[in-house]
Please model this.
Amino acid sequence: MSSGDNGAYGRGCTGSTPTVEDPADSPHAVAVGGTTAFEGRGRTYGREAAWGDPIEQDGSGGGVSRVFRRPAWQRGPGVSNRYSNGMRQLPDVASIGDSLTGWDIVSGGLWVPVGGTSAGAPLWAALMALTDQALAARHLGPVGFANAALYDFAADPSNFPAAAYRQVTAGTNLYYPATSGWNFATGLGSPNAAAVVDDFIAYEKGAR
Model:
């Protein structure tokens, strides 16, 4: 689910106090934040930074819920930090959100650039659908509620075959900095898609 496109100052924020958007702060949702992507040599993947545009006041939604307590599954490197107060923290993961480095889609017969966390969230949804296909091919159960597994991948990496995330450690979401480990701008990071699938396969095998 999209974490919002107003940075640390969620939709409807009327002051200077950071806030988050609902329903992304629900502990039953996977909240997807946004990044800015940079190409490497030869148009390969280079790196990502937290999406935060101070001129347009756009950026990756993230912060602390005022409603929901932090679930037990929200754990791992970086989760407990100087901004933590015992409440649910957003986002959980991230994907490209900055429309300047975002997704090209065909609309009305034309290529159109799109962005926002509402563009990044479908990438995670599609990745979960592909993961379900891989699990079904191995006669394993579907992903179902994903957050517990997503945080296990980061909290106990030695139990899984590959690093599921590309950590984002540069930039801010207009307030919170991207740091090593989990952070309030990009969560656990952006997906290493093949590794996410492999880790879910290992997770489901271990659950049997």
Observations:
- The chain has a mean pLDDT of 94.
- The radius of gyration is 17 Å.
